[in-house]
User: Fold MarR family winged helix-turn-helix transcriptional regulator from Paraflavisolibacter caeni.
Amino acid sequence: MKITDSKYGQCLYFTSAALARKVEKLAIESWKAVDLPPSYAYLLMAVLEEPGIQPSLLSAELHLQPSTITRLIEKLEEKKLAVRTYEGKITNVYPTPKAKEMQPKMKECLNRFYKQYTSLLGEEESSRLVQDMGKIADKLGK
Amino acid sequence: MKITDSKYGQCLYFTSAALARKVEKLAIESWKAVDLPPSYAYLLMAVLEEPGIQPSLLSAELHLQPSTITRLIEKLEEKKLAVRTYEGKITNVYPTPKAKEMQPKMKECLNRFYKQYTSLLGEEESSRLVQDMGKIADKLGK
DNA sequence: TAAGTTTATTTGTATATGCAAATAAAATTT
DNA sequence: AAATTTTATTTGCATATACAAATAAACTTA
Assistant:
């Protein structure tokens, strides 16, 4: 059944959750090329762009709870893609050489994902939708 | 930080996931009045509207995997809000009297949630966005 | 400077969701 | 009617995410 035909097709909760699940499935496929689920990939890209970034900032940028950030970093450390250093109460997260080598491949994944959905949805339309969703999310975010 | 300002503010994965998390948080609040997380509430509403509905149909309507539907029904059974009957390979799901009593309250929750987000976002704008998201999700589906 | 408060991060625990395999019934084919 | 295929559901296992509490460091204030 189509979402637009569902009883709840007019409901923001239902629709945003269903959309996010479908988009995530697509993203998971794209990111298989670097053997990372998308949330890990996005965190790692943020770390690659700001080596030494703190978990609190990652939490603010990625809109994930601090505890979630901790958990994601732990896994990236296990995979030897990130390391933490500790100085008093603050923690810095750095990419490993292995992560730096992966960076070009990750950019490809991002591009492939982008092309995949814009080819399905159209560049115009998807870009407008993404912007609208962002605005709405910001309004809800308080 | 605002989503629209984030490095990934243009990315469909990031934005749809972040939006869904924020919307879900709002929905959770609304549904506390009946002590149900939103996914359970939506399933139960579907069962109330079509008593005897099969898990496969619930899966199609709610865009959740069959295994997820099974798990949600199990919890609703524990809470004495639903019962399953088994006939060969098919399963039928019925609401209990307790669930029927709750129905008006659930409708209130749905309304309150709707009012809450439309007051933040505007009726026009949110209704248009929800429709667009539904269309996009349908295009991505499969 | 000691006491209290705030901030940063992690840990313990709970929940949601999914995939893949298992099970079992029904339908189809030979 | 036996063998095969398809369909419906559940189960086992894995993962993502969050909340609340715990920890620990840094700041503020008296």
About this structure: The first strand of chain B starts at residue 82 and ends at 87.
